[in-house]
Amino acid sequence: TTQNVRGRNYHPDTTVYDLSMRLYFKERFMADQDRIQMGVIFPTAHSLPNSSLAHYLGLALTHFGTEGSRYFIDEKGLQIDALCAHIESAIANNEPYALLGASYSFVHLVDELQQRQCRFQLPTGSRLFDTGGFKGQSRDIELSEFYAGLYEVFGVAPNQCINMYGMTELSSQLYDNGNHDLPSVKSGPHWTRFRLVDPLTGTDVPQGEAGVVVHYDLANYNSVAALLTEDLGLAKDDGFQLLGRVAGAEAKGCSLAMEHFLQAVQ
Is the pTM here over 0.85, yes or no? Predict the structure, then answer.
């Protein structure tokens, strides 16, 4: 059971959070583009006012989306017909397109588009963004199957599919450089650090062994700088591979919020 547990982090304002997000999102997701046509398949901050991901995606759309970028989910669920028309317009104009949402947003979307036998070939420079993992809700799916499904439906290769690793309790986010090789390697901005520790002793695990991830985030100035997670990681030269949750840890996060939202509106 998830016990409906949601992470919490209190901020006097979001100035530092917003700056942290914008600086590193530009570097890790936008590459050499200042703005890109965006579709967002996650509820708005108005619909989920306490969701850090809803706030994050609102920043992405506002600061990095071109005119016409918009959300494709409402009280009835995913607006699939409108999204398809939006994508087809970008293809017709040979305009790079970015589709962003929680991982389970994509699961629902890909399932529906495959059922409709609907396929796209997004223009060169297009990118997909998912976050949140799968957390045992709805149907489980292997990462290889997930990214293969995205390639089949959208024509975007796994190395242009970026996964963001974040949580409410942090004010910064970590990214990979695509998902051609799985599990991908996550890394964060220079104002963050991580350790992999033995949960019983709190000491660093030997090189080559998996450990529980500890994050240090200077953008968390109003909260705690160090955060012990329930995530397992394996250190690599340029970051760490996320191996999943510690056995027995509660599932929580943005994909759960998305799943509950879709269930509520059906």
Answer: yes
- Residue 260: is it exposed, middle or buried by C-beta count within 10 angstroms (0-12/13-18/19+)? middle
SS3 152: helix
Backbone angles phi, psi at 35, to 5 degrees: -140, 155
Maximum Cα interatomic distance, the chain, rounded to a whole number of Å? 58
Phi and psi, residue 119, nearest 5°: -130, 145
Please identify which residue in the block is written with the tokens 């599932």. Answer: 251
Closest listed residue to residue 132, CA positions, set 165, 110, 168: 165
Distances 246 to 6, 36, 80, 90, 228 between C-alpha atoms, Å: 17, 37, 35, 41, 12
* Tens-digit pLDDT profile for residues 39-83: 999 999 999 999 999 999 999 999 999 999 999 998 889 999 999
Cβ-Cβ contacts under 8 Å for 237 (sequence gap 6 or more)? none
- β partners of residue 127: 98
Give the whole-angstrom CA distance, residue 58 versus residue 25.
13
Q: How far apart are CA 97 and CA 95, in angstroms?
A: 6
Rounded Cα–Cα distance for residues 86 and 124 (Å)? 16
- Number of residues in the chain: 266
Instruction: Determine the residue type at 141.
Output: I
